[in-house]
Amino acid sequence: MFCLVSQHACSGGVQQFYRHDSIEIGLPMRFSVFLPPETGKQLTPVLFYLSGLTCTEETFPSKAGAQRLAAAHGFALVAADTSPRGAELPGEADDWDFGIGASFYVDATQQPWNRHYRMYSYIADELVPAVQREFGLDPERTGIFGHSMGGHGALVLALRNPLVFRSVSAFAPIAAPTQCAWGQKAFSAYLGDDRVAWQQYDATALVLAGGHKFREGILIDQGLDDPFLVDQLHPYKFAQACEKVGQSLRLRRHAGYDHGYYFVSTFMNDHFEHHARALNTSQLSPRKRT
After folding, report:
1. 259, 271, 274, 275: which is the annotated catalytic residue?
2. Is 148 a catalytic residue?
3. Buried b vs exposed e over 210-230: b needs ≥16 C-beta within 10 Å?
4. 62 catalytic per annotation
5. Model confidence at 1, in pLDDT bands (50, 70, 90)?
6. CB–CB of 173/235 below 8 Å?
């Protein structure tokens, strides 16, 4: 099912890159997997990571410095690509914030995007269960996190699939995409003019709609020197929504930090600690592979 592209020894484990033919996307897709030491003897807890605009499945493993932390916690890491590749649709490569590298993790309903731009279902229904089976990853100890557009995707996927993703965090997420230019541009093209349909991909709207609450809370880190903070990200609107419905949230603000991976890598350890607590990895007895 998966074709190994390359692998590299890393932090006592192995960093691998794969491609496969996606049913949901209808095109070949790529993803990365880091497997910590001792993988294979028992089901391994896993964190899925979603990257931001213009990134690929290689961005997170090459820039975030997360493998040593994953090895220390015994986590596997899976990083998806950010969009279909090779669809060759008109205009998909014209702008950096739309099309290739900018799927916004939605299932497009508008032509011509609806044929291949189905990243929500690709992550939730195809990639997650497939890699769990293939690599012996624990479906009961699965979390998700991401950065920027990927932070938006992580929040949405977790809020809509709380039995799949038991923990969630984000770095500088696009937290209210229906209220910013990036989200409005993407949603108009992918989803059409019905703004009610947009709400299912807006983390702030999903929180306000009620439903599952993450007992261990949600963690968001935000740099205060982020050039996109005021116009595009809106973490404070998300925080207000969480407060209104009683969802525990730690929104941490960091002076001097911008939007890039220097910021992300600085606070990566705190996100591993958050997921370790939420997934209760220190108290659960590891389950053996079957």
Report:
1. 259
2. yes
3. eeeebebbbbbbbbeebebbe
4. no
5. confident
6. yes
